[in-house]
Known about the structure:
A hairpin with a 2-residue loop joins strand 3 (56-59) and strand 4 (62-65). The protein folds into 2 domains: 5-82, 3-Layer(aba) Sandwich (Glutaredoxin); 90-190, Glutathione S-transferase Yfyf (Class Pi), Chain A, domain 2 (Up-down Bundle), CATH 1.20.1050. With 210 residues, it is α+β, with helices and mostly antiparallel strands. 54% of the residues lie in helices and 9% in strands. The protein is globular. It is built from 9 helices and 4 strands, in the order βαβααββαααααα. It starts with a strand and ends with a helix. It has helices spanning 15-25, 38-41, 43-46, 67-77, 90-113, 130-141, 154-169, 176-186, 189-208, and strands at residues 5-9, 29-33, 56-59, 62-65.
Amino acid sequence: MSAPVTFYTNPMSRGRIARWALEETGASYETVILEYGGDMKGPDYLAINPMGKVPAIRHDGRVVTESAAICAYLAETFPEAGLAPSEDERADYFRWLFFAAGPLEQATAARAMGWTAAPDKAGMLGFGAYDDTVGAMESALDRGGHVCGGRFTMADVYVGSHIEWGLAMETLPRRPAFEAYAARLAEREAHKRARAIDNAPIAERNAAGT
């Protein structure tokens, strides 16, 4: 039996991706909530992640940081959940998992910050042009139900989280492929559990005015 996962997070962070991933696996895990500033930048946590950022997990004495890496690690470490790709799915799985971690996040972050590169400098950017990046992601989701086609995999946790945030923050256009995909994922029981867990302390803080 695998050891429990220790999960370092904050409910208002990319830790929401890892929470959903953990809930999908059904793995046993314990949560350590870290506050921005002191907790994340303290020596105890910096020994786990020198970046002083969440999420991170510790499992069997090993540490994994970066949301995409955490998703991939959990899928392979808990194969009974059926979230890792089959041989036929591996190309799409890794292609779009890392597309979301690279070009898509860069493009939407640049849009949120109001950054626009001059046309002759676009080639220096990992995503090139915003419209090209959005179009490529749309083409992947327009082909079927999930990143790898008809079956949900861990890649959908990561890609789906970025689509949800992009729609909510208006850094992605409200195209039918994105909205339909996000709606499908929101119906998953693990997604509902994860969001409920993370939303509860946020609601408590809002009610307390903190």
